[in-house]
Amino acid sequence: MRTSERPARDSRTPSAGAAGQAKGVSGGLSGPSSRKLPVPPRERKPALAALAVLLILGGALATTLLVLRSGDRVSAIRINTQVGAGQPFSLEVMEEVQIADTGIGYVSFAERQKVAETFARVTVLPGTLLTEQMTVSESAELGPGKAIVGLALKPGQVPTGLRAGDRVQVIFVPGRGGDAAEQPKVLAQSALVQSTGNEDREGNSGVVNVIVDTSVSPAVSQYASSGEIALAELPGAR
């Protein structure tokens, strides 16, 4: 008996239904529904573009003006030595500098003669550019009720590096030959140092002129003559 053998169907060969479905799917992807919707053209805004151009031009113009302005120089007064509150501005403490014109009201060097007729409202440190707010026409430190007393002090009686414009306490320090019951006492709580001089090699000033009230100036002078005066600097009182 003869038997006929049929070739086995390859499971990998797609059936007609599957091929049809695949075709349908392929056709669906390539159909009109898969096409992109048209994008409307962008709306042009000439007003915004013009504003952007104006901002750019304005920024460039401002930068140019700043560069040009930075080249403008003006003459000003710079203080080269400390001037204490109430002290006069002398011509020696003023020097000319050229600075950029920033709009700040610095006193011109051409006004130095007028400045020399004024006094410091506050203590002015070296390197300060002078403004009108730092000057005053009358000094309360050198007005009525004040006296300038000269002190000849030894090392140990005066702080090292004391300068004009500093504030000090004037203290009575009893000597060894005085009354043992006497105690040190403050004669002037905050006296202004007007000037110093005779600096020795160690930087101690031998002669110091201080401004005190006239009510205590006799006692200060008396104790200074007997070497019973000492000065204590007040760094925070300027």
What's the topology here?
Elements: H1 16-29, H2 46-70, E1 73-79, E2 94-100, H3 112-115, E3 119-120, E4 135-136, E5 146-152, E6 167-172, E7 185-199, E8 205-213, H4 217-225, E9 229-233
Antiparallel strand pairs: 1-2, 3-4, 5-8, 6-7, 6-9, 7-8
Protein name: SAF domain-containing protein
Transmembrane segments: 47-68
Region (Disordered): 1-42
Annotation keywords:
membrane, elongated, single chain, 238 residues, transmembrane, alpha+beta, SAF domain-containing protein, transmembrane helix, 4 helices, five-stranded antiparallel beta sheet, Type Iii Antifreeze Protein Isoform Hplc 12, two-stranded antiparallel sheet
Could you write a compact summary of the structure shown?
The protein has 238 residues and is an alpha+beta fold. The protein is built from 4 helices and 9 strands, in the order ααββαββββββαβ.
Q: Helix-strand pattern, N to C?
A: HHEEHEEEEEEHE
**Straight-line distance between termini:** 135 Å
Number of helices: 4
- Average predicted confidence as pLDDT: 76
Compute the CA-based radius of gyration: 46 Å
Extended strand count: 9
How is the largest sheet built, in terms of strand order?
A: 5-8-7-6-9
Structural class: alpha+beta
Low-confidence stretches: 18-29, 199-205
